Amino acid sequence: MLAYARALLTGSEQGRTAYLAADLRDPGLILDAAELRGVLDFHRPIALFLVAVLHFLTGADQPRALVRRLLDGLPSGSYLVVSHATGDQAPPGVGAIVETYATTAAPLVLRGLADVCRFFDGTDVLDPGVVRLPLWKPDTPPTDPETV
């Protein structure tokens, strides 16, 4: 995958992209990486996307502290985007999925909405706030918000 990504990540100065193979549990390595410093302008706001990754960090990994360390390393005005599997209103069968992941090197940790909101402590959360994905800026409102 890394070789494929590197082949795809060549482009013009306006469209430069970097790929960094790193462990999210080492935010210092990420923030200091030459690959990032060569592409991102740390004098301007940066968007940090932690999509479909935080639910693979256990409490022992201290995920909120990791997010805070990454945010603290970014310029003022930067943005944080998070998606996270949650146990709130979980569909039937999700317990079996969690059990399956528990047998792997990356267990699935379902956090509740209140816990997910804590990743944003110390930030200004934009409207509509921390909500379930179908409720975030929907083109059309869901027919039954209890089922999304």
UniProtKB/TrEMBL annotation:
InterPro entries for this protein: SAM-dependent_MTases_sf, SAM_dep_MeTrfase_SAV2177_type
Cited SUPFAM superfamilies: S-adenosyl-L-methionine-dependent methyltransferases
Gene source species: Frankia casuarinae (strain DSM 45818 / CECT 9043 / HFP020203 / CcI3)
Source taxon at top rank: Bacteria
Protein name: Methyltransferase
